Amino acid sequence: MNKLHLHSLRKHEILRKKQQISLLFRSGTSLRGDFIKMIYADLKPEHGDLCDVPAILFAVSKKNVPSAVRRNRVKRMMREAYRLEKSSEKGVGKESAGGSEGTRRCLVFLYTTRNRDIPGLHAFRAEIARLIEGADGC
After folding, report:
1. Which in 32, 61, 103, 131 has the greatest CB count within 10 A?
2. Residue 111: its pLDDT value, please?
3. DSSP result, 1-68
4. Sign, CA torsion 15/16/19/24
5. Closest Cα partner for 94 from 125, 52, 127?
6. What is the spatial distance between Cα 112 and Cα 136, in angstroms, rounded to a whole number?
7. Phi/psi at 124 (nearest 5 deg)?
8. Residue ranges of the chain with pLDDT lower than 70?
9. pTM attached to this predicted model
10. Which of 102, 83, 96, 99 lies closest to 134, judged by CA?
11. What value does the CA radius of gyration of the chain take, rounded to a whole number of Å?
């Protein structure tokens, strides 16, 4: 029962600290996909953070998606797509969990389209996989 699932997204993997979020937005590198923008950087972890797993943040602007219900749905879809993609062979946990010793890979996924139709889970998975692969190549 206490087994860790292969496709889980644990609480310690979510980026919550304001200082790290602002540092990530200031010093991070960005990649743009069709409807998601990813910002990433290798940052020094806060006290007690794990270095071996990346920190993730999902954001949807109220300006892009005015309805809270639709914003929450987009965030759920991005979380689910990332959760499924991170455990793949080329996933985030393998190569990019830290560029150098003592750093932690931090990622932000921003939903950027104003299109009324929300893409499906398959489109989110493909987009996130493409962005992660692009970040690993840099």
Report:
1. 131
2. 97
3. --PPPTT---GGGB---HHHHHHHHHH-EEEE-SSEEEEEEEEPPPTT--SSS-EEEEEE-TTT---H
4. positive
5. 52
6. 22
7. -65, -45
8. 1-6, 47-50, 88-100, 138
9. 0.83
10. 96
11. 15
